[in-house]
Amino acid sequence: MNNADFHDKSFIFLLLLVSVGLIIILLPFYGAVFWGVILAILFTPLYRRLLRVTRNRKNLAALGTLGACVLIVIVPVILIASSMIHEGVTLVQKIKSGQINPALYTQQILDAAPSPVHRGLERIGLTDVKSLQIKLSEAVMEGSQFLASKAVRIGQNTFQFVVGFAVMLYLMFFLLRDGSALSMRVKQAIPLSAEHKRHLFNKFTTVIRATVKGNILVAITQGALGGLIFWILDIQAALLWAAIMAFLSLLPAVGASLIWAPVAIYFIATGELGSGIILIAFGVFVIGLVDNILRPILVGKDTKLPDYAVLISTLGGMAVFGLNGFVIGPLIAALFFTMWDIFSTSRPHDRA
User: Fold this and answer.
1) Model's pTM, two decimal places?
2) What interhelical angle do 115-123 and 102-112 show, nearest 10?
3) Smallest Cα–Cα separation from 316: which of 271, 252, 230, 270?
């Protein structure tokens, strides 16, 4: 091995070593860094408009974009989250005080169930009212303890949350201001042809914008519609269920139906046929159509991913990366298809 090869390999080893070290250092603020990058990409068009308005004053344009992001995204999320927590606590208190009796509701469903269902439930011991009350009371107590522990944990981690939030905004400011220069340096470091790099970077930004904007718009729409029909039907804690449906709507195809479908079954089983039919019709033809129409237009069309790939990559991404996975999963899937497309088109094809 000559000195040049040794120096090159030593440099690559050190480069990988310090890169891994930086990743380890940033892991405690992984969410803050991730969403700082995502929000910077999403708000770059606004930053460019403000840059023209402010006559190329980068700091002023970046600050204006940051303020818009706080008002448009962060403040509404904080308000909705606080309202959701309030309704959740109120719901738990009503269950513990007996105003809401899950065991009674379950028994009403069991009484209306056909005999084959009864036989199946008898085998696992779920037809006795007392056992149901005990099991549901235990579930409620475990749920309330879980919520209490989470509240304590949130209180203990307030400082870490504030620091992470500040890191996200700070990073977003510099990514907006210096994003063009940074992206150029990254492009120069990637050992690919100019055409391939342009294709990959375009796909990267397109998938992020389509996934975040598309999925969040679908989630907000389905959650709002679900909350509206729950409020009309006078279902307890409609805002809480709306938020849960919005969160579950990040899962394509199934999503919000995991909430409204059991409620509709309960209505029908307890004799409230009108409410059950209304909820099913609204869930299938209104909430369901939002997913079937908007998601392919907003997500699948821009990412150019088939529906099954969007579903599987979203589920897999959320299983591995948590909530952030609804962006990371489809992004990795889109880059996977793009890389293989580049690989297959760049290779010389054998003539038949």
Assistant:
1) 0.68
2) 130
3) 252
Band of residue 305 on the pLDDT scale cut at 50, 70, 90: confident
331-347 pLDDT, tens per residue? 888 888 878 877 777 66
Query: How would you class 304 by CB atoms within 10 Å of its CB: exposed for 0-12, middle for 13-18, buried for 19 or more?
Result: middle
pLDDT(230) > 80? yes
Smallest Cα–Cα separation from 252: which of 330, 320, 206, 315?
315
Span 8-32, pLDDT tens digits: 778 888 888 998 888 888 888 888 8
Instruction: Check if the beta carbon of residue 303 is closer than 8 Å to that of residue 330.
Output: yes
Crossing angle of helices 238-248 and 75-97, in 10° steps, is: 120
CA–CA separation, 242 vs 332, rounded Å? 29
Here the tokens at position 313 are: 């990559």
Indicate the burial class of 152 (C-beta count within 10 angstroms; 0-12, 13-18, 19 or more).
exposed
Count of CB atoms situated within 10 Å of the CB of 65: 25
Query: How many other C-beta atoms lie within 10 A of the C-beta of residue 285?
Result: 9
